[in-house]
Amino acid sequence: MIKRMLKSYDYSLIFAVFLLCGFGLVMVYSSSVITAVTKYKQHSDYFFNKQTKALIVGSLIFLFTAFFPYKAFANRKFQKLLLLGSLCALIALFGVGYVAGNAQSWYKISNYSIQPGEFVKLTVILYLSSVYAKKQSYINNLGTGIAPPALLTVVICVLVAVQPDFGTAFIIGLIALCIILCSGFSGKTLLKLLTLAGVVFVLVSPLILFNADDILTKERLSRFESYQNPFEDQTGKGFQVSNSLIAIGTGGIFGLGLGESIQKYNYLPEAHTDFIMAVIAEELGVFGVLFVILLLSFIVIKGFYIARKCEDPFGSLLAIGISSMIALQTFINLGGISGLIPLTGVTLPFISYGGSSLVVLLASMGILVNISMFNEYFNRSKRKQPINTTKFKENQYQKSINY
């Protein structure tokens, strides 16, 4: 049984994930050397060492979730504890949270920072997948089927947004939307849901307008004003995006060489987090960028394929949620650094520096690998089931009579 399970794992997916993580470690070191020394007064390998520790912790959690049966996550008691813990962690931030980047989104423990918003992404995926899988018999009932979990998700998004961390809140909302749209309800129910969303928006709009100055600060407005033409105010509003575009353009096809980036010399703020792909483009050129995009695309496509092949509604929705999370983060990050969309501060999956993000991503990939393994394991078991010859002959005889 164990041998058959080990044979059923998707090793191509595992290889792609850890290849990206290894590449990310190299690029975190390359992009953070100058920042670590000049800005944080630390050793050149400061961020590299912290990311390595996060990768080790994440790998151990990956092994656990890859071998632990994913269906156990649908347990009601576990779901309640997970939701309660996530809500408490988000609320407690307003009292003891650590402020960084104008957002009170972290817990500071010694030299390490933990961002609960990253863990809430996985909480929402597990919760919505479990709830909607259990509601399949009455999924078209808006009052008892779709709405309650969706409203709880809205509450979670609001708690994240008021930190303020609009990027994470936006991603959580989009992940939830992907799971809800794939939960199996009819087009008529979708129309009702859109109407309800419109009513909620109308009710919330006055509150948003009343607090417009607090929500749309000068810094946030500058991101919307500058992303289309960052070179118009290159030293002001467009500083980040313009330097990102310079880095991308400088790299060309083959790049300047690993470690040879110029923009990481404090031209790109926090080059090892949001703008790490710009450094990859500058140092490794088009080939480096394609390497990352193709591997991320492979993981996302593989995830949706696993969801398509999974016969269990919980496993299928879980795979959709995890794949959507990686796809959305990738698109938002790449769109921001290339000037296609406004900057949101979202990191690039598996590549950017960020311990909380890396641990959550590896835990999620372990679950995805586990879903894939169970699919393949049961499919192999079905193929190897012996044919009942007596029953087969009876069926053939019955068919000949009917004919």
Automatic annotation (TrEMBL):
Localization, per the record, is:
Cell membrane
Note whether RNA-binding occurs among the keywords. Answer: no
Q: Name the PROSITE patterns on file.
A: FTSW_RODA_SPOVE
List the Pfam families. Answer: FTSW_RODA_SPOVE
Tell me if Protease is a UniProt keyword of this record: no
- Top-level taxon in the UniProt lineage: Bacteria
Supply the name of the protein: Probable peptidoglycan glycosyltransferase FtsW
Species of origin reads: Bacillus changyiensis
Q: Which gene encodes it?
A: ftsW
